[in-house]
Structure formats: structure tokens, C-alpha cells
Amino acid sequence: MGYSINQTSSTDETNGVINLTNGLHWYPFPPGQCPPLYYVILQGACAPLIIIISTVLNSLIAVVLLQKHLRSPTNILLLAIALYDTLTGLFPFPTYIFLYTFRHCDDYIPFNYGWFHRINHDVLPFIFHTCSIWVTVVLAIQRYIYVCHSEKAKQWCTVPMALKAIACVNVLALIVAIPMFIEGTFHAKAVYSLLDRKNIFNTCTVRDYSEDSRYRTYFSIYSLIRALLINVGPCTILVICNAILVERMKEAKENREKLMRRRSHESRGQEQTNVTFMLIIVVTIFLIVEIPMAIYIILMAIFRLFNKNAPNFFNFAVQLLNFAVLLSYPINFFIYCRMSRAFRDAFTKLLCASFLNTRQERLQSMAAPLLGKQCGVTTNNIELKISNVETLPASSVILNSTANEIPMSSLISENNNDLKISSNGSVEKLRVSFIDDVN
């Protein structure tokens, strides 16, 4: 939205409130008219609490996924979604507190607050929510490639490709949001405060070009295109990908016993199934809150195109939809904890590292003398020689990155000649070899 100062608008004063003309409107709402009670409950009490919880949980997700051994293309996309969801809630947080929690609506809104409200309450949340939507689409397409076209995963499902996809999504969101900056202009109007008649300050008014008959058609078309790009299109792609993944999961479940010959293969295959099922749940929750929002945006664009007023209950409906979107943000953390063993392990080790280390050292100190006493040998009589040891990286939350994340098993070969016992009963040589069959 463009911003300008114009104090020449014709007005008349009635009961201390100035009545605007010439197409100007109060922003964000008329002075002395506080929002309805459901606004205060949803946006002033529930929304700030949900935003705080979501910020804490998404921060924990980011800390876990930023670990070096968990770095994979899918985890980078999950990290981006957590970041975008957090920013979508944090930027409007001050406006919720100012307008709805403390209800600063009994006087004119200062002019400087107008642009702050517009940017933080409307523009930036829209940009970050758009990024979150399209990164979710990229995540679903990536999982589709892993499951249905695994031979192409090494080419398309890499960390550089994930970063490029995120950059393209950011550019797309900025381009789509450009008309939001030019659909109206802010104007300052000198007024007397309703609380203190001696105080004069500039209040905020707006001229909305989307309501002008000369531009209404253009903005209605823009609303429809935005609904297709941001809501309808992504939801359609996600529904198709979800249906394909569910079908492939059924086939994999039926053929698992035939394909998985070894126990290690079976456990890795089960982890891959859990990961796919986890992403299906994440996408399904996303669709539950986004499809009604898409329907609402399309209906509002149609009403505006035909110059008709929307029903009154639409105001209440959009508040419920916005709150449902906020409510879906902290759910992902619990889904990751429930469905991904690797995420649980990494999260536990991250928060309880000192406790686990202390417990491990205590167990080792207790086991060492017991082992020597039962075997009748001392540590001086044991010579360990470990050769060709290759440390494998810990499993990531999503085991899907190229060669390192393809479900493979490591075999342990034992040579009978590697263990020799001397005549006095001591172990002369113990050699353990770890052979990894990962190409």
C-alpha cells in the first residue's frame, strides 16, 4: 500500500467523531468502536497464547534440525516451514496485543500506527504464509519423487536443490504481494483526541482503491489469481500427491515381507514408511485449514466482482479460519516426536546430553570390574586392534538423502583366526572389522 499525507479531505464533526467523505475510511476501524467480543476472545486472548507456544516449539524443531548429522534435503524444507510459520505468527503479535488484548480502540488511531498495522498485520504474514504453503508443496513433491521415482532422487532431491526451491518460493511470494502495497493510500487527518480535547494529533485514514468502481474489476481479478496461486493450486497438488503416497504406502505394506530380506533392512524400511506417513499427516492438517480459506477468498472475490456485499457471518468465519491456521502451527512438533524415532532421539540427546553422558560413564565404570572378574582376565591381558572402522552418520529425521540415506545394512564379519587365546588363558588378539555395503 502506498502512503501519503493529505489533510484537505472534507469533514464534519458530530459528537466528537469526524465523519469522513471523499472515499476515505478509518483504519483499521472507526474510532470509539471496539471490535466485537469474538475478536477479543480469538485475537486478543487465544491467538497470542498460541503464537507463544508455536514460537517455542518451532524453535525446538529448528535447534534439532540444525544439527549437522540431521542435515538433509527434507529436513531443510521442514526447517523452512517451521521458520515461516513462526514469522507468520510473530509479526502480527504486537497488533493483537495493542488492539484486541488491551483494546486501544476508544480513541483515534495514530497515523504512524496505520502503516505499522498494515505491514505487520496484513502484508508480512501473507508473504510468510505464502512461503510456508509453497514449501509444503515442494516437500510433498520431494517425497513423491523418493517414493515413486527413486532413481531420480539423487538428481532432484539434494540440499542445493532444496535451497534453490526455497529461494524461488521467496521470490514468488514477494511478487504476489506487490499489489497489496498499491491497493490504497494512507492519509493523515488532524483531530482532537476523544479522551483529551486539548490533545491534537494526526489520525490514520485510508483510501481503498479496491472499492473504487474504476479499479474494482482489476482487484477482483487479482484476488482470484491470488486464490488460485496461493490456495487452490497448492491444495490441488497436495491432494494429488497425498493420494499417490497413500496408495504407494498400501502397496509397500503388502510387499514388505517379500522385499525386505534382512532384519536391518526391515527396520530401515519401517522408518521410511513412518516418515512418509508423517508427511501425509502434516499435509492433511494443512489441507484441513487451507481449503476453507481458499473457498472464502474465492467467494469474496466473486462478491467484489459483482459489486455485492458479503454476508455478515463472513467476518466471523474468516476470524475462525485465521485462528485455525495459527492453531495448526504448533501441531507439527508433536507429529515429528510421535512419528520420527530419529527426531525423538536427537531431541532427547540435545536436551538431556549431560544426564545421558553421566549415566553412560557410571554404567561403564560398574561394568568394567564385573567383566574382568567374571572372565578371569585383566585389561592388561586384552589387546584390541580395530581396523577399517568407518563411523556411519546418525539417522536423520527423514532418511531420504541420496546415497547416505538409502536404506542399507551394515554387515559384521568375524574371522575365527582373529581371536587367539594363549596357553595361559589370556586373549592375545581381538580384531573386529566393520564392513559397510553402502556404495
Name a few traits of the molecule.
four-stranded mixed beta sheet; globular; disordered N terminus; 13 helices; about 10% strand; Rhopdopsin 7-helix transmembrane proteins; 2 domains; alpha+beta; about 450 residues
Can you give a write-up of this model?
The protein is an alpha+beta fold and 439 residues long. It has 2 domains: 2-349, Up-down Bundle (Rhopdopsin 7-helix transmembrane proteins), CATH 1.20.1070.10; 374-436, no CATH class. The protein contains 13 helices and 10 strands. It has helices at 37-65, 73-90, 93-101, 111-148, 153-156, 159-177, 179-182, 216-259, 263-305, 313-328, 331-339, 341-351, 353-375, and strands at 2-3, 11-14, 17-20, 24-26, 184-192, 200-208, 384-387, 410-413, 420-421, 427-436. The strands form 3 sheets. A 4-stranded mixed beta sheet has the order 1-5-6-4. Strands 7, 8, 9 and 10 form a 4-stranded mixed beta sheet that branches. Strand 2 (11-14) and strand 3 (17-20) form a beta hairpin. The longest helix has 44 residues, at 216-259. The radius of gyration is 30 Å and the shape is globular. The two termini are 55 Å apart. The relative contact order is 0.12. It holds the Pfam family 7TM_GPCR_Srw. Residues 57-336 form the G-protein coupled receptors family 1 profile domain. GO terms for molecular function: G protein-coupled peptide receptor activity. Keywords: Membrane, Transmembrane, Transmembrane helix.
